[in-house]
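Board notes, transcribed. Complex of a protein with thymidine-5'-phosphate.
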Amino acid sequence: MKRGLFIAFEGVEGVGKSTQASLLAERVRAELQREVVLTREPGGTALAEKLRQIVLSGADGPIDDRTEALIMAAARASHVSQLIFPSLKDGRFVICDRFAGSYLAYQGFGRGLELDVLKIVTHFSSYAIDPDMTFLLQLDPAAAMARKGTSRDRIEIETDEFFARVAKGYEELSFSDSWVTLDASLSVEQLHEEIFAHVLRVIQNFGEK
Ligand code: TMP
């Protein structure tokens, strides 16, 4: 059985993660003839999608930062155990719109919760799995936010300072070996070609895939 690859997309809102994740999924299916699970965080299972709705709508009243962090972690544990692990085990590619990088960037750098604690919670909630590669789509947060429509969720209504901290957090996380930082101001097609080229390179490095 060929091993599946676990690929995550990260970045602030409006940088085009979802578009690139879908394009990559289509290309891997078409050109590599591999089964792909295209998924997102928070979300990916029925339970995690409910948690997503709770944490992003804010419809159930105020959510303090630690509760937000624990909801994100619960969603991740459900997603990893019910969808990500089984899919990789079956040899499928998993392409995920956000993963644990978002946790450190948003709950850590954005909200200011203790990074040491969040790293332990990440290890626990993700069953210690790390993406094989993470694409960070980088764009000035204000420019990225301007690409979003007017409807904003509980996190998207945060201040410019919050998103500047998140972007700074991503920059620090991007020094990790498995992260690839890309300029999100490129055209959708150019960005996709760069992403696919990186994926092919990683597949070659991994040997038989
Ligand atoms: P999105 O799917 O539109 O990017 O919305 C997901 C939101 O959830 C986004 O604002 C980032 C946030 N988020 C966290 O704060 N922590 C996390 O661990 C994850 C996965 C997402």
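Strands lie at 6-10, 36-40, 93-97, 133-138, 179-183. The chain has eight helices and five strands.
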